[in-house]
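PROTOCOL LOG
Step 1. Enter all chains and additional molecules of the complex.
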Amino acid sequence: MTSETSNVAKPDMIEFKDVHKYYGDYHALRGITATIRAGEFFSLLGPSGCGKTTLLRTIAGFEGISSGVVLIDGKDAAKIPANQRPTNMVFQSYAIFPHLTVEENVGFGLRKDPRSKDDKAKAVAEALAMVGLAGYGKRAAHALSGGQRQRVALARALILKPKVLLLDEPLSALDKKMREQMQVELIRLQRQVGITFILVTHDQEEALVMSDRIAVMFEGQIAQLDDPETLYRRPKSRTVANFIGTMNFLPAKILSESGGKVDVESQGFGRLTLDAEAQVTGEPTATGASIGFRPETLTLLFDGQTAPDRESMATVDEVVYYGDMTYYDVRIDGTEQPMRLSMRNVFGRPVLDIGTRTRVGWSPGALVLFR
Amino acid sequence: MRISGLKLYAIVFLIFLYAPIVLLPMFAFNNSTVVSFPLKGFTTQWFQNVWNDADLWQAVRNSLLVACTSSVLATSFAIFAARASTRYNFPGKGGLMGLIMLPMVLPDMIMAMALLVVLLGLGVQLSLVTVIMGHILICTPFAVAILSSAFQSLDKSLEEAAYDLGEGPISTFYLVILPLVTPGIISSLLISFTISLDEFVVSNFLGSKDKLLSVYIFGQLRFPKSVPTIMALGAVLVALSIVLLALAEYFRRRGIAKTGAKDTGGFL
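Step 2. Run joint prediction.
Step 3. Record the structure below.
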């Protein structure tokens, strides 16, 4: 596979232009328009049934589209059958051929390769070494563990040097330890081979850890496409905010807007002036505006500590101890529902009991206003 | 040990089921032309009769030819039907599959009579070919049932993986699908073979002067003199069946071990 045009530094690898997909009456993809750049680690994140896997399968060619255009490396994908696309896939079930050995699985795609037998065997050995399975070639594929199958699937896809590697929830079948280990390995592998990785996942943490950019999908639409930090700090809607981590919301009222500043009045926090550019987001909704903040932006203040910015009084409603962290639900004076607060546990500092009156510190700069 | 009612029932049931079969070899070695107790002396006379009976050998050859041909053809047809029904959706699929499976529950007698009337009406000479046609009709639903479950348990993403790695539909079929459904194909061949071998109604109705084994045996039972010979033949068939079944089970277990699938239970 040779790249014909490479005059742009980071060319677009995949382009969706108003892609729609219907299954009978069911509208699975509702106008997807997005660009995935060459060499980036891109994630499609969303709850099950949001269309993320369908979108991935349109790139692989297993799923046709009802209208719109999908471009792969500048070429109309509709004209390229699945078995000729410069993409390879790691399936959720790994799809390792159970009747073949590890070697035969990895070398499966080389059948039509004109290289000599020795060269192909060398390529297979290299691919296996790359995924940390050197010496496993002769084993029967069905005798492998879940993690090893995953690696065989990776080697089998990468040996063909695709322009895009598609990963369909590849880590969901692994246990937590293994999953975290594979996350790191996938990032390392992506840097090493430098090709575009597109990952489908429902695990927001996984997406945040691994991706350069994330498209959050709900009901067949992309709700937000941003880098992990922007996605976490400034989600475009309450739905996105709730899907990525935890966010607290307080009802608020917009008093006035002028000169890039927005004056709001919210429960608990009182009157605030926020930066319209950096802190205001979302479309107006029927439920009215609200102030949002992440649990870690609210801190407990112990005796002698002063708030870096503002402080309020609150009552501890619930305590959840996680070892390295403690999560508290606190009721700030003047608010109705409890707010989630997270504290890193520090040696010598007590975990508060339910019912304790405490001071909490917060900073207006860390708040986000949803219109 | 107390034997409970259900246990007793199970034991009686098994005796009732297998005692007659055990009697076959017993009388096959009995030195008497009358099949009754008490047993007399030991003889291998009846086996020699079987060995020397030219008509019997002809019937065996006919039966093997019919059973092999019908099982291979029925299984081939069933591969297409099972594949289509498990992988694709098309209008009228339910009705079509129903029609294919119908001969399984339709009385053989009705099928045999209908076929006979049609074939005679068309002026077709009755021969082994017409018997084979009837047997294919009877075997196909069983083959479809066995193969459907084999195709059903095939992970669809294996096919997609083969496409993804550059193979076309035909090479995917023989590189991935066929090897994985091979145990199912062997099962289907064996079951079809057995069904064809002991099928009587269709063989009798559509057969010509070239008699099949089942028809020949039925004909011989009219002569009391040849009953012990039939017993010997029966004993041989029982032995062969056990060997065949053991072989089928061996291949099935090997297939499972090779692909690492979960053993969901077989014949034995």
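Step 4. Note key features.
Residues 54-87 of chain B form the longest helix (34 residues).
Residues 43-259 of chain B form a domain with the MetI-like fold fold (CATH 1.10.3720.10).
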